[in-house]
Write a structure and sequence with these properties.
With 489 residues, this protein is an alpha/beta fold. Helix content is 40%, strand content 20%. The protein has 17 helices and 22 strands. It has a seven-stranded mixed sheet with strand order 14-15-16-13-12-18-19, with helices on both faces. Strand 15, helix 14 and strand 16 form a beta-alpha-beta unit. Helix 4 runs antiparallel to helix 6. The radius of gyration is 23 Å and the shape is globular. The N and C termini lie far apart (76 Å). The relative contact order is 0.14. One of its GO terms (molecular function) is aldehyde dehydrogenase [NAD(P)+] activity.
Length: 489
């Protein structure tokens, strides 16, 4: 194994502990947060550990920026800054790729060519929005009165992002929040703070005023809770587990701040007998194993029609066994990297054992791979039933659960029998059936004869306990803005 040489800017960035970004300053704290490379179970870097006190300072910096040059900046100039930031991200995609490969473990070429590139596209899309945010003149019934509306930023937004897509999830939230004119306090996941801190430096470099983007890495129980409950924060946007989402809502009640949540999932993916099998099997495979199964939209419950189950299982097992798994910074690119941490690896392996104990059969993988790092062999399990733990709970790892079915109405009911509603989909060449699935499946995003597509222009979010609010598209602007009604007599 030969590792890639670090880009000189990445090497310099990792050479010494990075402080918090608050306003124009790098703020060092008395405690450091170890950043672990999950490919090797070794310390890759250190950053300052933010606390509730640092959140308070960051909120003050964001509030000052809101009433300062950022608050008076024209829509055109805001859009220009967003476009410049998009260009800077794409120009430095190698740096973002390496940072995400180091603290997340995902293959560097994926982090560089997918996550970083799509982050830049996200900022470019929202760079066009500031000049499109407009109110209305309303023909009211009161004589000699005029009524019109203004759409304004919410204010200071607290953004809390997960570790599975360190750069991309920041872009998803940050771009529309900035386009709407807000200022930001960002708490990235404690496991993956590197690219967020680098992005904050980049924002200053391209011309964002100090205090518009503040970044405070820290633990959810301290910095995260302080951000959710802070009286100076007007809106919280969160992506993460449903359990943590509930705590975010509880923390928001003090000042009744706006909240949007993108939470867990247990997506049902239905493979009908009339599907284009080559396309459906490949799509269903990557629906789960993309990003190593560490995605809220992973097609974790694959329902396969009984008549084709045997051949589908055989091909999926062959594909899983053929996957290359290795370090994110390996010079020979791999299909998958490690899971994020030792606790997550132990959790995933525990789910596999629970499945075995409840009667599921492992047909590929099923164990830790290697002794260094947090690698789980890509796992396919069949003979899974709806009541098994692995069919009910979100595993968030490379474990594909296969269930069989006989009838369309039956499988739709079973697909909807979950607390989650983030994503779902199916594979069929029957257009009428595809439209019935679109109508009956209960999820915020449905993929039919495809899986995993997203676009900055298309709304994304969940139903049921997968959260509320829609990121991306015009709906995302509404998450980060508020309407004022004005009467003139």
């Amino acid at each position: 194994m030969k590792l890639l040489d670090l880009h000189k800017d990445v090497a310099a960035f990792l050479e010494k502990p990075q402080g918090l970004r608050i306003g124009n300053d790098r703020v060092e704290t008395s405690k450091l947060l170890d950043v672990i490379d999950p490919s090797f179970d070794t310390q890759a870097a250190q950053v300052s550990l933010g606390t509730a006190a640092n959140i308070d300072d960051a909120v003050s910096a964001a509030r000052a920026a809101l009433s300062g040059p950022w608050g008076t900046m024209t829509a055109h100039d805001r859009g220009q800054l967003l476009w410049k930031l998009a260009d800077a991200i794409e120009d430095r995609k190698q740096i973002f790729g390496e940072l995400d490969a180091i603290d997340n473990g995902k293959p560097m070429h994926v982090a560089r060519d997918v996550d970083a590139v799509y982050s830049a596209r996200h900022f470019r899309y929202f760079a066009g929005w500031p000049s499109k945010i407009e109110g209305r003149t309303i023909p009211v019934s009161s004589p000699d009165k005029m009524n019109f509306t203004k759409v304004e930023p919410v204010g200071v937004c607290g953004l809390i992002t997960p570790w599975n897509y360190p750069t991309l999830m920041v872009a998803w939230k940050l771009a529309p929040a900035l386009a709407a004119g807000n200022t930001i306090v960002l708490k990235p996941a404690e496991q993956t703070p590197l690219s967020a801190l680098y992005l904050a430096d980049l924002a200053l470099e391209v011309g964002f005023p100090p205090g518009v983007l503040n970044v405070v890495p820290g633990f959810g129980s301290d910095a995260g809770a302080a951000l959710a409950g802070h009286a100076g924060v007007d809106k919280v946007g969160f992506t993460g587990s449903t359990e943590t989402g509930r705590r975010i809502v509880e923390g928001s009640v003090g000042n009744l701040k706006k909240v949007s949540l993108e939470l867990g999932g247990k997506a049902a993916n239905i493979l009908f007998a009339d599907a284009d099998l080559d396309k459906a099997i490949a799509g269903s495979f990557w629906a789960l194993f993309g990003n190593n199964g560490q995605s809220c939209t992973a097609g974790a419950r694959l329902f396969v029609h009984r008549s084709i189950k045997e051949q589908v299982v055989e091909r999926l097992a062959e594909m899983a066994n053929a996957l290359s798994v290795g370090p994110g910074m390996d010079a020979s690119p791999h299909d998958l990297g490690p899971v994020i941490s030792r606790p997550q690896m132990d959790k995933v392996l525990g789910y596999i054992e629970a499945g075995r104990a409840e009667g599921a059969e492992v047909v590929a993988g099923g164990a830790q791979r290697g002794e260094d790092g947090y690698f789980v062999a890509p796992t396919v399990m069949q003979s899974v039933t709806d009541d098994m733990t692995i069919a009910r709970e979100e595993i968030f790892g490379p474990v594909l659960c296969i269930l069989d079915f006989d009838d369309e109405n039956e499988v739709i009911a079973r697909a909807n029998d979950t607390d989650f509603g983030l994503a779902a989909g199916g594979w069929t060449q029957d257009l009428a059936r595809a439209l019935r699935l679109a109508d009956k499946l209960q999820a915020g995003t449905l993929w039919l004869n495809t899986w995993g597509d997203t676009d900055a222009a298309s709304p994304f979010g969940g139903m049921k306990q997968s959260g509320y609010g829609r990121e991306m598209g015009a709906e995302a602007i509404s998450l980060y803005s508020q309407t004022k009604s004005i009467w003139l007599g």
